[in-house]
Write a structure and sequence with these properties.
With 825 residues, this protein is an alpha+beta fold. It contains 26 helices and 33 strands. Helix 2 packs antiparallel against helix 3, helix 3 runs antiparallel to helix 4 and helix 19 runs antiparallel to helix 20. About 3% of the residues have low confidence. It is a peripheral membrane protein.
Length: 825
């Protein structure tokens, strides 16, 4: 994985110092660095490690250096008990010498202000010095009695310090101690494994001691909870253990940077020894942590260092981390986009590197996109050429061509082929031809791919065709070159030559080429080749284009290949039963030879097939089923039935045939043939019950003949008979019910009145049925058939029956007009 930090040694003046002396402590300001040594010197350095000032403080080790936020005042303490606080740019100065080593000193963060002239020191006691009246310094004891003070950090109004028992925090406003965080592993010597303290912000303290990390948050106590308690309290929000001993801590956003002291077992001596220190970035979790990155640091003299010899300081504004050891100072900083691009180039992820450079081109300093591209060219890192070439080189054809020639110089034209522009801009044809020749000399498949992908107008087609032809003279059967040559001929609109090559290769694109360029005139003499290649596609194409290649021409071309001729005519017959009717006689022989399963369906569907010829062929080949069908179609049902019974000996088929023909004589022949064959009798008994009276068959069975399953057959006959009776009775009931319903409906209809008005006429005299003078009496006869007569116009009935009939409807013999309505006035 890509590292999160990058490292470099602090050199220049630091190198000179550490050649003669050893570093003991360091503090970091955003403007400069302050380095203390074992020989009692304090050096001010710039961020490059150059010495700007030097102070001879003591002849012995400097234990700690402290700076205020302005960087104008410094506090220094040493192993011989000396404490100095002085202004770097003023004459202000405090000197004091104690009778014990002073391990720590911390000046007030705002020491530059007159009312914050305070600092603390720590040896056996934690002392606070405050400047009072007449510029006199007044000391006061903040804490004592728990061993030496090992570390102190002052942030805002809070002071945190560590002694042999644990970590305390003092609120300088209330002058109250607000917490005590005991150390976890009391077995570790506090002087060998010192406590590391770090303020993340004004209210968050990070504690590292041994292999334990605690992140503490200072919070305000609610007024109702105060009583005699401090107005602030501390809550441990994160706590976890690390794999190794902690030498230093620093915050990085919401993550932690941890400097660890590592011991390992030597493979040679099998004795525990000091290993390279590690700088880890971890994500704190409530009870554990997630490792983000881990780097082992090769610092000078790490084999001789102890846990207390390492220190970690950081610059908040720039995320710089300084790893201090006696013989080395290493600077770690967050990797920027330039570093990310460097890492991608190192891993040969060129495509991603250019993408990153393009996205961050306004912020990157070290890399320029085009420079990166040229560097890659010169170093021959060409496996994955820049996918962003179009955006990098833009529409500048001269720049494109210049870069292509660069690739040619180092023999890597093939590497850029995929990324050459194909439109807007278009380069000179020579450029594309140069790339194609490179592939043609070494990679036929790659050459074929480019011909397929590149438009034909990018290069001189004639030149490339000639080059391919020259190569084919050396290798005439190379399918890749032949296929590519066909494509080139297609671009050049020489479709005939392309078609010949495709047919020779039996290439799948041959049909697409014919359709696309309407090459049907070119394939009139190549129908056999097309059918041999793919008969299904060829037949479909020929039938879809009958207007361009006639059926007669196709049949003629396939005359010497009857199996292909059959495939074509069969597909034609499936599409239209009448188009190829002149070839139906020929198809009988073709079906008989190559496709017997479809012969019978053909005979059934064809209305143009000569039956005599078909019968002759089927009889010659002993095709019984086809012969039976033809005999029955020609009216010779008895011969067909005889063949079924004698040749096939299939009683079920014979019965089915007799049912289809529905001829009593055939049933008689079937019974006569079956009368001495018990299996046939069983089949007849099971199937003829609904067509022939079973008694006719049963009476003819000889006495004593053993018939298989006779009882079951007789039971079935009786069941079928009962079923017929039930069906007849059911039908009769339905008929009677329907008749009664219709009779009632007719009666209701005939009982309705009939409207007679001036528009009605007498069907006999054709005069209006109603008189013009309504006061006169009249008689009108209206039949239910709606015919109307004057009574005097009706003929006198010769019968004694009182029922009269409509003269017009009399032929219906008492039809709907049999009843009569008589209207008198």
């Amino acid at each position: 994985e890509e590292p999160k930090l990058k490292y470099e040694r602090l050199s220049n003046g630091v190198t000179e110092i550490l050649q003669k002396d050893a570093a003991s402590c360091m503090t970091v300001h955003e403007k400069f660095l302050a380095l203390g040594t074992h020989y009692g010197k304090v050096y001010l350095l710039d961020v490059q490690g150059n010495i700007t000032q030097k102070f001879d403080v003591s002849p012995v080790k400097i234990n700690q250096i402290s700076l205020d936020e302005s960087g104008e005042h410094m506090g220094v303490c040493s192993e011989d008990g000396k404490v100095q606080v002085f202004g770097l740019y003023s004459a202000e100065e405090f000197h004091e010498t104690f009778d014990c080593p002073i391990k720590i000193v911390a000046v007030h963060p705002h020491f530059v202000r007159s009312h914050f002239k305070q600092f603390v020191t720590g040896g056996k006691k934690l002392l606070l010095y405050e400047r009072g009246w007449m510029n006199r310094w007044k000391p006061s004891v903040l804490h004592e009695g728990e061993g030496n003070i090992r570390n102190v950090k002052w942030r805002g109004h809070l002071i945190a310090w560590a002694n042999n028992m644990g970590v305390k925090i003092l609120d300088m406003i209330s002058k109250q101690r607000i917490t005590n965080v005991p150390r976890d592993d009391i077995s570790l010597r506090p002087d060998m494994y010192p406590c590391s303290l770090c303020w993340k912000d004004n209210l968050t303290l990070i504690i590292g001691w041994g292999n334990s990390v605690k992140i503490c948050s200072v919070k305000e106590r609610h007024a109702s909870e105060m009583r005699d308690l401090p107005n602030r309290y501390v809550e441990i929000v994160f706590q976890f253990d690390t794999e190794f001993y902690i030498s230093g801590l620093a915050p990085l956003c919401d993550q932690l940077v941890i400097l660890s002291y590592v011991k390992e077992i030597s493979e040679k001596t099998e004795v525990e020894c000091c290993a390279r220190p590690r700088l880890d970035i971890v994500q704190p979790l409530p009870e554990s942590c997630e490792e983000i990155s881990s780097d082992a640091l090769t610092v000078r003299g790490f084999q001789e260092n102890e846990c207390r010899d390492y220190h970690l300081e950081y610059s908040e504004g720039e995320s710089l981390f300084y790893i201090i050891s006696p013989r080395d100072v290493v600077v770690a900083k967050e990797r920027d986009q330039d570093d990310h691009i460097d890492w991608l180039l190192e891993k040969k992820k060129y495509e991603e590197a250019l993408m990153a450079a393009e996205i961050s081109q306004k912020t990157i300093k070290k890399h320029k996109i085009l420079v990166s591209l040229k560097t890659s060219i010169q170093t021959k890192y060409l496996t994955s050429f820049r996918i962003k070439c179009q955006k990098i080189l833009g529409r500048n054809t001269e720049l494109w061509e210049f870069e292509v020639y660069k690739f040619k110089e180092i023999g890597q034209l093939k590497a850029i082929s995929r990324y050459l522009p194909r439109r807007d801009p278009v380069l000179k044809p020579l450029i594309y031809e140069m790339v194609l020749h490179e592939f043609l000399e070494s990679d036929y498949e790659g050459f074929a791919t480019l011909i397929k992908e590149w438009p034909g107008d990018l290069y001189n087609n004639t030149i490339i065709v000639q080059a391919v032809v020259d190569h084919l003279k050396k290798d005439p059967q190379n399918r890749t070159l032949l296929r590519t040559l066909a494509e080139l001929y297609t671009y050049d609109q020489r479709y005939g030559r392309a078609l010949e090559i495709y047919l020779t290769l039996r290439h799948k694109d041959v049909f697409q080429l014919i359709h696309k360029h309407n090459l049907f005139s070119s394939i009139r003499d190549k129908i056999v080749l097309l059918m041999d290649f793919d008969s299904e596609k060829a037949v479909d194409m020929l039938l879809d284009n009958e207007d361009k290649i006639s059926i007669d021409r196709v049949v003629e071309e396939l005359e010497n290949r009857p199996e292909l001729q059959h495939v074509y005519l069969h597909k034609l017959f499936k599409r239209d039963h009448h188009k190829g009717q002149r070839y139906h006689e020929k198809q009988i022989s073709l079906y008989a030879e190559y496709d017997r399963p479809n012969l019978l369906p053909f005979l059934r569907d064809s209305t143009h097939c000569p039956l005599e010829k078909a019968l002759e062929i089927c009889q010659q080949r002993s095709f019984v089923e086809e012969t039976v069908y033809l005999l029955s179609r020609m009216g010779n049902s008895r011969s067909a039935l005889k063949m079924i019974m004698e040749e096939l000996q299939d009683v079920d088929k014979a019965i089915e045939f007799a049912k289809e023909q529905d001829d009593g004589e055939l049933w008689e022949d079937l019974i006569l043939y079956s009368i001495d064959k018990p299996p046939f009798i069983t089949g007849l008994l099971n199937n003829i019950g609904t067509h022939v009276d079973p008694i006719l068959l049963i009476h003819r069975i000889k006495e004593g003949m053993e018939i298989p399953n006779l009882r079951d057959s007789l039971v079935k006959i009786l069941q079928d008979y009962n079923l017929q009776i039930l069906l007849r009775e059911g039908c009769k009931k339905i008929l009677v019910a329907d008749s009664l319903s219709l009779l009632k409906k007719m009666h209701r209809t005939q009982m309705k009145g009939v409207l007679v008005d001036e528009e009605n006429i007498c069907e006999s005299c054709l005069s209006p049925i109603l008189p013009s003078d309504a006061s006169k009496s009249f008689n009108v006869v209206v039949f239910h058939c709606r015919h109307m007569f004057h009574k005097e116009c009706l003929p006198v009935s010769n019968t004694v029956s009182p029922v009269q009939f409509c003269n017009i409807c009399s032929a219906k013999h008492r039809g709907p007009g049999s009843a009569i309505l008589e209207m008198k006035k």
